[in-house]
Amino acid sequence: MRWDNLSAPPDEEVPGRAAPATPPLPLALPGAVARTFDTPGFAGMTFYEVQAKSIINRVPGASRMPFEWTINPYRGCSHACVYCMAGDTPILMADGRTRPISELEPGDRIYGTERRGAYRRYVITTVLDKWSTVKRAYRITLEDGTRLVASGDHRFLSDRGWKYVTGAMNGAGQRPYLTTNNRLIGTGRFATPPKPSADYRRGYLCGRVRGDAHLGAHSYAYGTVHQFRLALVDGEALDRTQRFLTDAGVETKSFSFAPASATRRAVTAIRTSKRRDIEAITELIRWPDAPGDDWRLGFLAGIFDAEGSCSRGILRISNGDDRILEETGAALNHFGFTWVLEDPGLPNRVRQIRLTGGLTARLRFFHLTDPAITRKRSIEGAALKCQAALRVVSIEDLGLELPLWDITTGTGDFIANGVVSHNCFARNTHTYLDLDAGADFDRKVIVKVNAGELVRRELAAPRWRGAHVAMGTNVDCYQRAEGRYRLMPPIIEALRDFANPFSILTKGTLILRDLPLLRQAAEVTRVGLSYSVGFVDEALWRAVEPGTPSPRRRLDAVRQLTNAGFEVGVLMAPILPGLSDDDESIEATVSAIAAAGATSVTPLALHLRPGAREWYAHWLAREFPHLVPRYRQLYRAGAYAPQAYQRELTARVRIASRRHGLHRGEQGDNRRSPEPPPPPAEQLTLL
């Protein structure tokens, strides 16, 4: 079919004609229509038109949002902000590492479970098949923050046996199903693996070489001999050590140290006898004055490969050197592990650090530090015991039929982000649409083409009580795709006709197209309008929000809405530490917001949700590497900046607001200053 040309500026609408239909989603939505456009502003983007099952969605009770209902006509966003992604769901592989479920293939060896005696135990199994299915999707949130998305027919292992996600106590749908009285079985969500940074490599070499290598210079009558030698039976650790040394400019040679025998495995070694190499290695393994997180993680991995063991459920690191034990204990403390020091009274003074906390702590250690030797990471035969905080907090109907991954394994189950899953799981990416966590969020947008008729139907339902509805709280409802699909006019018309209060938060200037409808709605109900303007620096805008209208154009839209009789609040978000939180930036932004006629300004610091933080961190390391240490410090405790930082930021914005005559208005209609709704998830969440 042919689509008409549109006249709006290229950063707001989708001009041009439809290009030939693109290939379907990797896991095709049934009945979906895939579209691409030949306009340069949408090069590489695909729009998937779907018939949604519902549109007015309840916000989970555990959410921080101050509203209960929301409408999101789009999933994914063409704004392409660098801080609005989610992460892959990790699956526990047989080598002890994790891999996103989307990357699993038949033949892969992973962990499953089987009952042996009184306990169900972890066993290695094989992925036999992999395919996709499309069903109504539900999101299960656990006490420790783990989120799982599956169909209602999916089963998880709970403390009361296998439970379906949904079910009924009687009738045709009768079956055991999850409730908030259940706890899932497992260890809890997996830790994020370390980054292979230079500090991590130095830390690993320090632990590996100090723990197990021969390094030194020996004087003889004929001169001084310099020597480095590391001999191991485990090729994985030897290969990693040799590779890390090569990266640092130290070349070593491999040789057979001892052949295999009836009682001993073959030993291979690496060595160098060049003085400059010995000096370089000595410098590489020097104790740092102020070790960073990456160094500590590398050191723990290296010393575990050198002197660690894990058998019968006990992880130990043994050594007789006081400094090595001290640094090991300090690193464990730094990452929140608990441990005890055991001294068996040996003549060589070898003592053992024993990690406590059970399997949950051991897996966290392995995933957080990533030792090279996989045989030491095995948990095969370990019993599943419900010790982690995995109580079901909420089960939310997402209101869509979504693509979900299915795999078949030899045991009929697998371990998905720390819980036992029964052969059906959806990767928690792209707002649960099974798309890539990075570029796909920007390039593959799901369009609920029947949103308008669904809103009208659900507002007319007897059970609907006319509650306030917030829009733009997940992805921007006035992103550029709205120029083509025009989903918002029928939504606003329905809300107007039912006199249902609503609010809109946006970065898009396309909202001005619907100004007549907004004015009509404001005559019969409360309409709150808010804009998101985190900063006014044009260079920073191009770097972090390349697909959005410029701050200048957004503030011009605020002025036009104000002139039309609306009192518009501005959400000053996200404020980026080190980039837009200085006094000069705050002063310039607040001054521009006040000049645009806004009635209030609400500052919010950047929020780094798990998954989004990795995406943002990658961008930050590339564009502003000098800020990486500051972000590590600010967000080391979780997704939010420290309360002290947030309070100080709010105070500075408040002082600037008073200078410019801004005050926070009370929630109301177009005759009162509306309370700004919270920022869209994509605005405040970083990977």
Compose a concise summary of this entry.
The protein has 18 helices and 30 strands.
Protein described:
- This protein has 687 residues and is of the alpha+beta class.
- Among the domains are: 90-186 and 387-421, Endonuclease - Pi-scei, Chain A, domain 1; 194-374, Homing endonucleases (Endonuclease I-creI, Roll).
- It has 18 helices and 30 strands.
- The strands form eight sheets. It has a seven-stranded mixed beta sheet.
- A hairpin with a 2-residue loop joins strand 14 (214-220) and strand 15 (223-232).
- The model is unreliable at 1-28, 83-88, 424-442 and 664-687 (pLDDT under 50).
Give the SSE layout:
Elements: E1 18-19, E2 33-37, E3 46-50, E4 56-58, E5 69-71, E6 74-75, E7 90-92, E8 98-100, E9 109-116, E10 119-142, E11 147-151, E12 155-158, E13 161-164, H1 198-212, E14 214-220, E15 223-232, H2 235-247, E16 253-258, E17 267-272, H3 275-284, H4 293-307, E18 308-311, E19 314-319, H5 322-334, E20 338-342, E21 351-356, H6 358-369, E22 392-409, E23 414-416, E24 419-421, H7 439-443, E25 444-448, H8 451-459, E26 469-471, H9 482-485, H10 488-497, E27 502-506, H11 515-522, E28 527-532, H12 538-544, H13 551-563, E29 569-575, H14 583-595, E30 600-605, H15 612-623, H16 628-634, H17 643-659, H18 681-684
Parallel strand pairs: 3-25, 5-26, 26-27, 27-28, 28-29, 29-30
Antiparallel strand pairs: 1-2, 2-3, 4-5, 6-25, 7-8, 9-10, 10-11, 10-22, 12-13, 14-15, 15-17, 16-17, 18-19, 19-21, 20-21, 23-24
